């Protein structure tokens, strides 16, 4: 059986983004967590053409339990799971995990199934009716990460992240982004 994640030994614990949550986060984490636009565009604004995507995992599988619940997916339904590293000339900046249900891919005219090394943000933020439905935050301790993820992201400390439910034409997807130390220096 194939793995559900390159990044995680187990599913991270997420906290619902409630009123006041923002003020409990460090200022540089707030800046990235509450970025209203595309994180990819923000990285490109700073690093230019040096931004690249390394695909760590891309396969059809069943998402983690909390991901299925958030997207209201049945246990036996597969979704496209994509995990990537965004980097600037090899410097790790953001690890990301995306869950794209089949019905969302159909609505998006296959662009989402054939991203290749294109950042997801470049595609979804081009849709005029992209909606943000909800967001959660997390702080993940190193033991939650797999050894390969620790090596790719140079993880040696707890890592902050956010996950956002987006909708394109009322079809949802889940995008989780984890802010590595180098990206938190750019705020």
Query: Strands of the biggest beta sheet: in what spatial order?
Result: 1-5-6-7-4-3-2
* Structural category: alpha+beta
* Biggest sheet character: 7 strands, antiparallel
What's the helix-strand series? Answer: EHHEHEEHHEHEEH
Gyration radius, rounded: 15 Å
Residues in helix, %: 10-25%
Distance between the termini: 41 Å
Low-pLDDT residue spans: none
Number of helices: 7
Short descriptors:
alpha+beta; seven-stranded antiparallel sheet; 24% helix; globular
Description:
- The protein has 187 residues and is an alpha+beta fold.
- 24% of the residues lie in helices and 34% in strands.
- It is built from 7 helices and 7 strands; from the N terminus they run βααβαββααβαββα.
- It has helices at residues 27-33, 39-47, 65-71, 102-107, 120-124, 147-153, 181-184, and strands at residues 15-16, 51-61, 79-88, 91-101, 131-140, 159-168, 171-179.
- The protein has a 7-stranded antiparallel sheet.
- A hairpin with a 2-residue loop joins strand 6 (159-168) and strand 7 (171-179).
- The longest helix has 9 residues, at 39-47.
- It is globular.
Give the secondary structure arrangement, pairings included.
Layout lengths: L14 E2 L10 H7 L5 H9 L3 E11 L3 H7 L7 E10 L2 E11 H6 L12 H5 L6 E10 L6 H7 L5 E10 L2 E9 L1 H4 L3
Antiparallel strand pairs: 1-5, 2-3, 3-4, 4-7, 5-6, 6-7
In summary, what is this structure?
By secondary structure, the protein is of the alpha+beta class. The chain has helices at 27-33, 39-47, 65-71, 102-107, 120-124, 147-153, 181-184, and strands spanning 15-16, 51-61, 79-88, 91-101, 131-140, 159-168, 171-179. The mean pLDDT is 90.
């Amino acid at each position: 059986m194939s793995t559900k994640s390159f990044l995680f030994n187990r599913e991270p614990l997420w906290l619902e983004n409630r009123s006041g949550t923002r003020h409990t986060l460090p200022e540089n984490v707030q800046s990235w967590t509450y970025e209203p636009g595309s994180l990819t565009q923000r990285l490109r604004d700073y690093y230019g053409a040096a931004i690249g995507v390394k695909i760590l995992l891309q396969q059809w599988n069943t998402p983690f339990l909390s991901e299925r619940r958030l997207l209201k997916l049945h246990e036996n339904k597969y979704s496209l799971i994509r995990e990537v590293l965004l980097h600037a000339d090899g410097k790790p900046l953001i690890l990301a995990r995306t869950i794209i249900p089949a019905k969302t891919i159909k609505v998006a005219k296959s662009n989402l199934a054939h991203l290749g090394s294109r950042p997801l943000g470049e595609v979804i933020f081009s849709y005029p009716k992209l909606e943000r439905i909800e967001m959660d935050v997390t702080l993940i301790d190193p033991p939650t990460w797999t050894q390969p993820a620790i090596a790719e992201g140079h993880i040696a400390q707890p890592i902050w992240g956010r996950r956002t439910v987006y909708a394109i034409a009322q079809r949802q997807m889940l995008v989780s982004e984890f802010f590595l130390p180098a990206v938190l220096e750019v705020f």
